[in-house]
């Protein structure tokens, strides 16, 4: 990942965090790492523990941001979520996976899209 891509990702995570807080999410962890994956943000929203993947784009590309979270990425997020639950000894909690997409519109403004329950554990 190039420096520009890294900076775009970090800026996107900060923007997503602020956006989610405005929506009532309580951010409890940032950039949680396991051996096989990473979760950008972990939050509480109501009764749910939410694992959030942030996708940042310079401009809105074709296709769905949720579609950009491919099978291998989902598996690594799920692995990291399981590791988080195990390490924190969290049981009997509703969990879900959300995706936040952030991109610049052609007029220069920023757009944010929240996809709740973007994917499930099979």
Summary of the model, kept short:
The protein has two helices and five strands, in the order H-E-E-E-H-E-E. It has 122 residues and is an alpha+beta fold.
Please, could you describe this protein's structure?
The protein has 122 residues and is α+β, with helices and mostly antiparallel strands. It has one domain: Trna Endonuclease, Chain: A, domain 1 (3-Layer(aba) Sandwich), CATH 3.40.1350.10. The chain has two helices and five strands, in the order H-E-E-E-H-E-E. Strand 3, helix 2 and strand 4 form a beta-alpha-beta unit. The chain is globular. The N and C termini lie far apart (30 Å). The model has no long low-confidence stretch (mean pLDDT 88).
CATH topology grouping: Trna Endonuclease, Chain: A, domain 1
Q: How many domain modules?
A: 1
Sequence of secondary-structure elements: HEEEHEE
What overall geometry do the principal axes of the alpha carbons give? Answer: globular
Mean pLDDT score: 88
Q: Structural class given helices, strands, pairing?
A: alpha+beta
Computed Rg: 14 Å
Q: What features would you highlight for this structure?
A:
single chain, 122 residues, alpha+beta, Trna Endonuclease, Chain: A, domain 1, five-stranded mixed β-sheet, 2 helices
Topology, please?
Elements: H1 3-22, E1 26-34, E2 37-45, E3 48-59, H2 71-87, E4 94-104, E5 110-119
Parallel strand pairs: 3-4
Antiparallel strand pairs: 1-2, 2-3, 4-5
